[in-house]
């Protein structure tokens, strides 16, 4: 099967990429989705707050998805559902399986990676204790409650203060469960500030910072967890252990970009974003392979995901037309003082540079984001690790840059 | 005279100003920390009647999924959430449902409607047309 552009994954990144590849003139766009419906994780994110920037509307996840899906249909994108991509080569040959057609081979001119991310689970954080029923990641609990109609438990402790954990704290209280507390190992919350207010404070759910779970009790079912304060080195402080009785432990302890296919295709991955090293055009190290959304780096807002999806789709369409040669030169973009993560990681001098920056430490006063060379400084009212900053640097200002570009945050 | 000090985090925009307010007999005496006038509006509303959009689910029959996601079409008083949820617990729909279709009007006397936030049909998912296309692999 031939295609101009093939997009792998139909969450917000993939839907946007497919739509904008088609809008940019790609004739034959194929969208590959392993589930029986389009929309990815948006289907279970029934809370509002989606698309404030992109559509100027306060949509819920399913509303946002349906609006995009309608646009994708009108753009005449061919959607293959129940289609699991099992292989991707560096010359852009996709192998997929589908219950009707068996094994499919697709040879698109351009490929967009939009596989999203997966949740870190108990195994990633090594909590000691027994292995009873009642331990779930926040996203799994969200699926149980919002789609399947099951309450995962009645007395709940949440470890980690990522946005999904905060959203689920509120959701479970609304459904009649008791959420005993949210415990966060870091000294600052992981989720967005508005979620701390609307999900925890609104429902009097306590947030314990610099705390973690050190033991899980219970044989058949969770009977309790032992929480413990941690010191500056995140090591448990002896004598602060406390048993919290509960029947369920939810984990909201981070997301990891899902890059098995990227690795197979030989795409260079970044050690700190865990996603493909990309340029401002969303091109990876393998020509004709683009990536966007949470497979690149875990974004805070769907608007940011869509912005990278738009870019990846447009670039893939351009590549398919033969109008996008390999970059003549590139500059690495590196994280400097108080920057934990910067995306994209490479600049190819072909367009304005839109940077997404996550600070290492919170600074609750006016800061300057410094991009050097060329030595551009941009003011921001604060720097918070749980809220990515986004800046746009015009192409003209970067034309004379040689060597690598360092991004730092100064007080 | 009773003086009360309260602390708010404004959720109007992502900055999330931390605002300290002092009230005496319900009247604002002082306010500090807000970077703009929207912060002041937010606090006034919070003191009077905190308003929030409620999102939840209702049971649905004949679909692939057990639950249909819903929302209030406007913000409602937060204190009325339990009444709205009690009404939603009584609802059981049948497919088909279209996105934005009104499920309960003037729910719990709030003046707001509860609306569906996605379409669902018998095939399960409101995406039947697309699924048929999935078999049309060239």
Describe this structure in words.
The complex is a heterodimer of chains A (about 400) and B (about 140). Chain A has three domains: about 1-120 and about 255-325, 3-Layer(bba) Sandwich (FAD/NAD(P)-binding domain); about 120-255, FAD/NAD(P)-binding domain (3-Layer(bba) Sandwich); about 325-410, Immunoglobulin-like, CATH 2.60.40. Chain A is α/β, with parallel strands linked by helices. Chain A contains nine helices and 28 strands. The model of chain A has no long low-confidence stretch (mean pLDDT about 95). By secondary structure, chain B is α+β, with helices and mostly antiparallel strands. Chain B has two domains: about 5-50, N-terminal domain of TfIIb; about 55-130, CPE0013-like fold (Roll). Chain B is about 20% helix and about 35% strand. Chain B has helices at about 35-50, 80-90, 130-135; strands at about 5-10, 20-25, 25-30, 50, 55-60, 65-70, 75, 90-95, 100-105, 115. In chain B, the strands form three sheets. A five-stranded mixed sheet of chain B has the order 8-5-6-10-9. A three-stranded antiparallel sheet of chain B has the order 1-2-3, covered by helices on one side. Chain B has a two-stranded antiparallel ribbon with strand order 4-7. The interface between A and B is large, with 43 and 39 residues.
Record the SSE blueprint.
The complex is a heterodimer of chains A (411) and B (138).
Chain A: E1 2-8, H1 12-23, E2 29-32, E3 48-50, E4 59-60, H2 61-74, E5 78-80, E6 84-88, E7 94-98, E8 102-113, E9 117-119, H3 122-125, E10 128-129, E11 135-137, H4 138-148, E12 155-159, H5 163-174, E13 178-184, H6 193-200, E14 207-209, E15 211-217, E16 224-229, E17 242-245, E18 248-251, E19 255-257, H7 260-264, E20 289-291, H8 302-320, E21 331-335, E22 339-343, E23 346-347, E24 353-359, E25 367-372, E26 376-380, E27 389-393, H9 395-398, E28 405-410
Parallel strand pairs in A: 1-2, 1-8, 2-5, 8-20, 10-15, 11-18, 12-13, 12-18, 13-14, 21-28
Antiparallel strand pairs in A: 3-4, 6-7, 7-8, 9-19, 15-16, 16-17, 21-23, 22-24, 24-27, 25-26, 25-28
Helix pairs in contact in A: 1-2, 1-8, 4-5, 5-6
Chain B: E1 3-9, E2 18-24, E3 27-32, H1 37-48, E4 51-52, E5 55-61, E6 67-72, E7 76-77, H2 81-89, E8 92-94, E9 102-104, E10 114-116, H3 128-134
Parallel strand pairs in B: 5-8
Antiparallel strand pairs in B: 1-2, 2-3, 4-7, 5-6, 6-10, 9-10
């Amino acid at each position: 099967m031939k295609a101009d552009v093939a997009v792998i994954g139909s969450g917000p990144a993939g839907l946007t990429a497919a739509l904008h590849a088609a809008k940019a003139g790609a004739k034959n766009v194929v969208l590959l989705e392993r589930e029986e419906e389009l929309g990815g994780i948006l289907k279970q994110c029934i809370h509002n707050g989606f698309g404030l920037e992109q559509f100027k509307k306060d949509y819920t996840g399913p509303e946002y998805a349906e609006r995009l899906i309608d646009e994708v249909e009108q753009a005449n994108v061919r959607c293959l559902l129940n289609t699991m991509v099992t292989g991707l080569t560096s010359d852009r040959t996709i192998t997929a399986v589908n219950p009707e057609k068996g094994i499919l081979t697709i040879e698109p001119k351009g490929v967009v990676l939009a596989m999203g991310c997966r949740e870190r689970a108990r195994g990633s954080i090594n909590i000691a204790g027994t292995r009873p029923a009642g331990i779930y990641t926040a996203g799994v609990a969200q699926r149980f409650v919002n789609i399947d109609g099951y309450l995962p438990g009645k007395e709940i402790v949440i470890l980690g203060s990522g946005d999904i954990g905060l959203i689920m704290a509120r959701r479970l209280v609304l459904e009649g469960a008791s959420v005993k507390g949210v415990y966060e190992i870091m000294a600052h919350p992981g989720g967005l500030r508005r979620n701390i207010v609307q999900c925890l404070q609104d429902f009097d759910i306590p947030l314990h910072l610099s705390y973690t779970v050190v033991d899980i009790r219970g044989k058949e079912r969770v009977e309790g967890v032992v929480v413990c304060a941690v010191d500056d080195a995140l090591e448990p402080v002896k004598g602060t252990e406390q048993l919290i009785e509960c029947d369920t432990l939810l984990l909201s302890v981070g997301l990891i970009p899902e890059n098995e296919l990227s690795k197979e295709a030989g795409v260079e991955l970044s050690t700190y974003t865990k996603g493909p090293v990309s340029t401002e055009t969303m091109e990876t190290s393998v020509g004709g392979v683009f990536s966007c959304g949470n497979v690149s780096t875990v974004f805070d807002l769907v608007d940011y995901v869509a912005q990278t999806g738009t870019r990846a789709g447009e670039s893939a369409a351009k590549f398919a037309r033969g109008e996008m040669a390999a970059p003549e030169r590139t500059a690495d973009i590196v994280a400097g003082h108080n920057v934990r993560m910067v995306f994209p990681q490479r600049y190819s001098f072909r367009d304005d540079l839109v940077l997404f920056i996550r600070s290492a430490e919170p600074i609750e006063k006016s800061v300057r984001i410094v991009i050097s060379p060329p030595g551009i400084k941009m003011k921001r009212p604060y720097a918070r690790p749980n809220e990515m900053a986004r800046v746009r640097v015009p192409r003209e200002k970067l034309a004379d840059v040689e060597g690598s570009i360092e991004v730092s945050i100064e007080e | 005279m009773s003086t009360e000090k309260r602390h708010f985090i404004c959720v109007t925009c992502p900055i999330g100003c931390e605002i300290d307010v002092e009230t005496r007999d319900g009247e604002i005496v002082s306010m500090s920390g807000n970077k703009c006038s929207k912060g002041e509006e937010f606090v006034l509303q919070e003191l009077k009647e905190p308003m929030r959009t409620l999102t939840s689910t209702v049971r649905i029959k004949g679909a692939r999924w057990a639950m249909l996601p819903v929302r209030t079409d406007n913000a409602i008083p937060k204190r009325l959430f339990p009444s709205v949820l009690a009404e939603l617990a009584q609802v059981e729909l049948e497919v088909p449902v279209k996105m934005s279709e009104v499920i309960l009007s003037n729910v719990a006397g709030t003046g707001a409607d509860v609306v569906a936030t996605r379409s669902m049909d018998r095939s399960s998912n409101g995406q039947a047309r697309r699924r048929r296309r999935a078999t049309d692999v060239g």
